[in-house]
Amino acid sequence: MAAIPAPVPAVDAATGVLTGATAHYRKTLRDLEGVFSDDQAFARRLAAAPGEVVYDVYEVQRSQAPGDLIFGTSILEPGVVGSEFHMTRGHLHALVDRVETYYCLRGTGVLLLESVPGGIETIELRPGVVAYVPPARIHRSVNTGNERLITLFCYPADAGHDYEIVHAANGMRSLVVRAPGGGWALVDNPRYRQRDA
Q1: Domain containing 135: what range?
Q2: Residue 180: CB partners within 8 Å, gap ≥ 6?
Q3: Residues 6 or more apart in contact with residue 193 via CB below 8 angstroms
Q4: What is the C-alpha separation between 101 and 167, in angstroms, rounded?
Q5: Residue 65 maps to which CATH number?
Q6: Of 27, 108, 164, 192, which sits most exposed with the smallest number of CB within 10 A?
Q7: Spatial strand order in the sheet of 109-115
């Protein structure tokens, strides 16, 4: 008897939903305690809507073999906590020489990149932009717009994720915040703890 083939993955560019995904996870406000710098603003938002969805991730992973790829979509909802825009937790690949690409399908945002010693770079995301994450860069997506930020990502299947490097430093060196006159600005994270290079 022939094996039933896996469904061919397809992305709905309007919603970011990836049919044929092998995994889906969702992060709510409750899941992101300690990620935002303004604890009081976070506590107020959490009390009002603890189950509010901040982002969803759909991915296709066929194996963890070197040479294979993982790809998927990230759907980051608009919003702010204090002056900070909604963002993903951020991570470094466990195998630090692995790279990643992001293709923006919808919305506007910033891909925040940080070297392990703390150097910061930003890539503005808008539909059609392809962002490249070099080796040994912590990276985080930030939604600076008023609609969902939807990106298509791809990285080596053996890359792994290190979230602890971000948590241990109390976040990334810089925060992406709402600028007083509109738009976004980059400011120092007052809680940042310098890590060993």
Answers
A1: 10-188
A2: none
A3: 168, 169, 170
A4: 23
A5: 2.60.120.10
A6: 164
A7: 120-125, 109-115, 137-143
